[in-house]
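Progress report, Aim 2. The chain analyzed during this reporting quarter is listed below.
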Amino acid sequence: MKTTSTHVTTATIEADPEVPVLRITRDFRATPEQLFRAHTDPDLYARWIGPKDLSTRIDHWEARTGGSWRFTNIRGEGTDAEEFRFHGCFHDVRPDRIVQTFTWEGYPDGVSLDTVTFEDLGDGWSRLVVSSLVDSFEAREQMLASGMDVGINEGYATLDSILDAGEVT
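Predicted structure tokens for the chain:
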């Protein structure tokens, strides 16, 4: 975990010992409103989500309570390109939190329930906390072993760059 004097600037990923939940915490030099927009605007979301070696195509995006979404991560180009599709539903979308499901179509039985919250820390900083509940401890361990930390941290670093450039108002 990398921190500034008081801020978490590399995501912490913690496994709850009691329930199959992962908690991801990361601070950004941004307002909660900017973080909310970065998570609900499909063009912004596609620019920062995931590891650097993937691009993202939004196939469907309806960021509202009761809406749904689908995107495709693409590695490479042309006939050698690999595609990974994900989909879910937005259960609750409001400025301080988003509750949604998340499914990788390569493993359609694995569904997580994700709650994303945005907290104002003051002095121009906000904290993002993501809680992902999966159906078993085994599924959670597979997620942890997948290298998800690389994609999360690379994606959040890209989001830092977009925020620093003033592209999220």
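The chain is about 25% helix and 40% strand. The first helix runs from residue 32 to 40. These observations will guide the mutagenesis work planned for the next reporting period.
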